[in-house]
């Protein structure tokens, strides 16, 4: 029985064999590696992956597709909205159930998938919360989103997504995927992004960084003194930061350093008030 793509799930099924082979080559799966695929769909990428891995865990929301996937004994099917999946718990479960994984300690998860474009950013931020148990990520996304993820400062694509993800990952656009590679074809170009967590990221308050960057890019055409400058005044920030720039002109490293300075100043103020 042919599965009809469901618009509410953002389903666009990959059908181009050359593209599929290119993605699998980019992922380079090895036997026994703990891997999770998000949104396997009709298993176009699932089959070549599991052939090399031996076993694969998949997360599928569509119950009809999940039922079909369960017929493959090499797959563990998690029928769920990916935003509800606890990846730390899933990593531990895979470690306990896999003799290969247990024999080498607790290897981190490799995560892959063709992400629903309508919720791709929430998924990326959800995974950011579990980055310490993840080895790498390879995702099919709207090309426009990947352009923003990997953007450099002083470009139109550079923004909140660039800063928040580049703080924690080294990223690269590894493969272009045209609309005709899908059924049905989406109205946008797609691409594959590789995301490798930094081994020693800057330690900081993630919520504070998120708030700081959100304020900075809230009016990106204005100088930062109109947005971030006022926010820093409210935080009683007394450090040195040039607010006579636009948000897109500030490198990631400066946003991270500023977050650490604000955090340190806030902690010092609380200590003083407690005396």
What's the arrangement of secondary structure elements?
Blueprint: E1 13-14, H1 17-27, E2 35-38, H2 46-53, E3 56-60, H3 63-69, E4 75-79, H4 87-97, H5 99-103, E5 109-114, H6 120-128, E6 134-142, H7 143-149, H8 160-166, E7 169-177, E8 182-183, E9 190-197, H9 206-216, H10 228-234, H11 252-274
Parallel strand pairs: 2-3, 2-5, 3-4, 5-6
Antiparallel strand pairs: 1-8, 6-9, 7-9
Question: Could you characterize what this model shows?
Answer:
The chain is of the alpha/beta class. The radius of gyration is 21 Å and the shape is globular. The N and C termini lie far apart (72 Å). The strands form two sheets. It has a seven-stranded mixed β-sheet with strand order 4-3-2-5-6-9-7. The protein has a two-stranded antiparallel sheet with strand order 1-8. It has helices at 17-27, 46-53, 63-69, 87-97, 99-103, 120-128, 143-149, 160-166, 206-216, 228-234, 252-274; strands at residues 13-14, 35-38, 56-60, 75-79, 109-114, 134-142, 169-177, 182-183, 190-197. It has two domains: 7-197, Rossmann fold (3-Layer(aba) Sandwich), CATH 3.40.50; 206-274, Helicase, Ruva Protein, domain 3 (Orthogonal Bundle).
Total of domains: 2
SSE order, as H and E?
EHEHEHEHHEHEHHEEEHHH
Strand order of the largest sheet: 4-3-2-5-6-9-7
Unreliable spans are 3-10
What percent of residues adopt helix (DSSP H or I)? 25-40%
In CATH terms, the superfamily of the largest domain is Vaccinia Virus protein VP39
CATH class of the largest domain: Alpha Beta
Count of DSSP H/I helices:
11
Can you tell me the CATH topology of the largest domain?
Rossmann fold
| Mean pLDDT figure | 91
User: What is the subunit arrangement here?
Assistant: single chain
